[in-house]
Structures are given as structure tokens and as C-alpha cells.
Design brief:
about 230 residues; mainly alpha; Growth Hormone, Chain: A; 2 domains; 12 helices; globular; MFS_dom; Major facilitator superfamily (MFS) profile domain-containing protein; transmembrane; transmembrane helix; MFS_trans_sf
Length: about 230
């Protein structure tokens, strides 16, 4: 891994935003069933199905997000940011879910909008850093996400142990996700936005050039390079 990417302002913002998001992201996966059974007296089978609802809607959300991201006029970063805000707000408001029907609605909203954040990661990295840095950047980001994932649920569990209810844990998770989403809006500041638009234009106007590795290009003749670019 090339850790020098961490000093890149755009990638640093992405990493910090992901730290906040993943501190709260898995709280519903870990505690939603227990909250349903312990606080609302919902049967274990029905409570377990809430996680299935998250999975089903998450699958649908990824397909829809992929379709939208393929549209040239759609801003993938904006979809990502709005989806994070909706996910965080829904998690904060989940404390008002006092029956099975409202918990199903929350699980559906969470799964549907959380899908966009996961699905668009590689696209956003590519737009901001370029295709050549995608693999290394995604590896570093996965490392950051993993560390946050390890910390988040135990922290929520400690909050539950001190308060004896799940509301505070879900509120903490929702606030962290919202903060992570808001942090991603910093990526719209002019210097980063200009670089993003430049990289997007390069990818659109000359996609074949991105395929040719610089080291390989040095070994090819001019005629061979032109043949590759014309494909």
C-alpha cells in the first residue's frame, strides 16, 4: 500500500468521512434485532426478518444506484452524500419506531439508501484521484473502514450498558453517519472540484489512454500504441 495517498486532501476527506460513517454503519445490523425483541416484545423470528429486509432493499438499492451512476449527467458524489444524510437521519429517527411496522419501514429506508454509499465508493475515488490510483486508494480505504467497524459496535454496546436502552446507541450511530455525509460535501470546494472535473473529462475523452500502463507504453512502438488507442 502507498500511504502517501493519505496526504492527498481529497482522499484524506474521504477517509475521515468513512471513519465517521463506519463507526455508526453497523449498529443497526448488530442491535436492531435485540432492540425489537427486548424493548418492543417482537418475536425473534420477526425481529430477525428485519435484517433480511435490510439485505433485500440493499440489493435493490445497489442495482438502482448502479443504473443512476451510469447516466452521464448524474453526480455520483451528490447521490452518495444525500444517501448518507438520509441513512443517518433515518437512524436517528428510529427511536420513534415503537412497533413492528415502523421498524420495517426503517429497515427498508436504511438498506435502500445505505446501498448507494457502498456502491459508489470506487466511482468517487476514480473521479477524484484517477483510475491509476483506484486500487491502492480502495485498499487504504478498506483498511480505514475495517478499523472503524471494529470500534463502532462495541462503543454502541458500551452506551447501551450505561443507559440500558438502545435509543442512545442508535442516535449516536445516526449522528456519526450524518457527520460523515456532511464531511463529503467539502469535496465540492473549488480546488478539489476542478481536479475532479478534469479527471472526469480525461476518462471520458481518452479512456483508451488510461488502459495503457506507462511502463508498457515505453516498450511499445509508436505504431503499436496508436493501434491500442484506436481500439
Amino acid at each position: 500500500l502507498d500511504f502517501s495517498l493519505l496526504i492527498d486532501p481529497a482522499f484524506g476527506i474521504i477517509c475521515l468521512g468513512n471513519v465517521l460513517v463506519f463507526l455508526g454503519y453497523f449498529i443497526p445490523f448488530v442491535f436492531l434485532r435485540d432492540r425489537a425483541t427486548e424493548e418492543l416484545n417482537i418475536t425473534r423470528s420477526n425481529a430477525a426478518f428485519l435484517l433480511s429486509i435490510i439485505g433485500i432493499t440493499n440489493t435493490i438499492g445497489r442495482v438502482v444506484t448502479g443504473f443512476l451512476a451510469d447516466l452521464r449527467k448524474v453526480d455520483s458524489l451528490l447521490i452518495n452524500n444525500v444517501a448518507l444524510l438520509v441513512t443517518g437521519i433515518a437512524t436517528c429517527l428510529s427511536l420513534f419506531c415503537n412497533n413492528y411496522a415502523t421498524l420495517c419501514i426503517y429497515a427498508s429506508v436504511f438498506g435502500l439508501f445505505a446501498a448507494a454509499f457502498i456502491s459508489l465508493t470506487s466511482i468517487i475515488i476514480c473521479d477524484l484521484l484517477g483510475l491509476d490510483k483506484l486500487t491502492n486508494a480502495f485498499g487504504l480505504l478498506s483498511l480505514v473502514r475495517g478499523i472503524s467497524t471494529i470500534i463502532g459496535p462495541p462503543l454502541a454496546g458500551a452506551i447501551y450498558d450505561s443507559t440500558k436502552n438502545y435509543d442512545s446507541a442508535f442516535q449516536m450511530g445516526g449522528i456519526l453517519i450524518i457527520c460523515g455525509g456532511l464531511l463529503h460535501f467539502i469535496l465540492y470546494i473549488p480546488p478539489i472540484a476542478k481536479r475532479r472535473h478534469r479527471i472526469e473529462r480525461e476518462i471520458i475523452t481518452s479512456p483508451s489512454e488510461a488502459v495503457i500502463d506507462e511502463k508498457i507504453e515505453e516498450e511499445l512502438s509508436d505504431e503499436e500504441i496508436e493501434d491500442v488507442k484506436s481500439c
